[in-house]
Amino acid sequence: MITTSIKEAASKLNENELVAIPTETVYGLAANAYSEKAIRKIFDLKKRPLKNPLIVHIKALEEIDAIATEIPEAARKLAQIFWPGPLTLVLKKRPEISNLITAGNDTVAIRMPNHKVALELLNTLNFPIVAPSANPFKSISPTTAQHVETYFEKENLTVLEGGACTFGIESTIIGFEGNRAIVYRLGSIPLEKIKGAIGELESSLNNDKKPNAPGMMNKHYAPQKKMVITTNLSNEIALNKHLKIGILAYTQPILNQNVIYQEVLSNVGCTEEAAANLYASLHRIDKSACDIIIAEKLPEYQFGMSVNDRLKRAASA
Ligand code: TXA
Ligand code: MG
Hints:
The structure is a single chain. By secondary structure, this protein is α/β, with parallel strands linked by helices. It folds into 2 domains: 2-203, DHBP synthase (Alpha-Beta Complex), CATH 3.90.870; 226-314, 3-Layer(aba) Sandwich (Rossmann fold). It contains 11 helices and 16 strands. The strands form 2 sheets. Strands 1, 2, 3, 4, 5, 6, 7, 8, 9, 10, 11 and 12 form a 12-stranded mixed β-sheet that branches. It has a 4-stranded parallel β-sheet with strand order 13-16-14-15, sandwiched between helices. Strand 11 (180-185), helix 8 (191-198) and strand 12 (202-203) form a beta-alpha-beta unit. Helix 1 packs across helix 6 and helix 10 (271-287) runs parallel beside helix 11. The longest helix has 17 residues, at 271-287. The radius of gyration is 19 Å and the shape is globular. The protein starts with a strand and ends with a helix. The structure holds threonylcarbamoyladenylate and magnesium ion. Magnesium ion (MG) binds at residues 132-133, 141.
């Protein structure tokens, strides 16, 4: 059930129940970070494997020290610059932080969301919350309250209304080795910005064997329909002309008789706008009568890198 009442959402969380909450990236499925009983409900409802750790959401920069320890200078600097905002930091955890949150790792992921409703809610609670994206495991992330409601209608989940998410893809995740920052997940803060803030930045993204961010390797963010990515829509349409085609285009719609549905992510060619529209467009295409979704690859800069990452995972067999 969708509600606008922060009081109602807070009272559920105080009773160790789950509530879906808006953030600037995607809607999250929130629980009291200090209640293992509540945290377990997240894994049950999402059908998420326990080996995928969760992100702790805090309301103020100062709270970081109650959750993490041995915080590198570079991490403090990033938090100061980008919080509240779509940046998650993976830091050494304090012993009070449950192993359920961290999947048994000695690190914990933390972020401070930049959404008025989420911050108001956090300010009425006397604990931080854990919140993965509010979708069943592997499916398309939700960027509206209605997306969440559709996923969990049967379970009668309380969904706190906060409008459409402004960024529309998940936070960028950065971990550390000593003071060295390492990208674990591409997301709503472009790497160019992070490099601008701290200079050096390493990537663990191509290291397929040993993912630093568990849960990032698998098929993810996926529609029900088969999906392929291409740099050349016309070629891919020709290859699939026996099928009813749905197109996810970057800037230009395409005229073709086999295309029965299409979405354009940004008709002005803005990667940030494309990112904001990505999941909502995928939700709609998936509901259309197409047999296959053909998605156009974005340019590899700014939010284009993050969108391409999601497209690749969504299309992976
Ligand atoms: O934008 C976001 O980050 C959204 C909103 C709701 O805040 N949340 C989100 O959570 O995307 P989720 O659960 O879908 O993704 C969390 C990911 C995990 O899959 C894992 O890759 C990484 O965060 N993660 C969490 N804890 C970690 C840890 N201790 N070490 C490495 N990676 C971690
Ligand atoms: Mg997720």
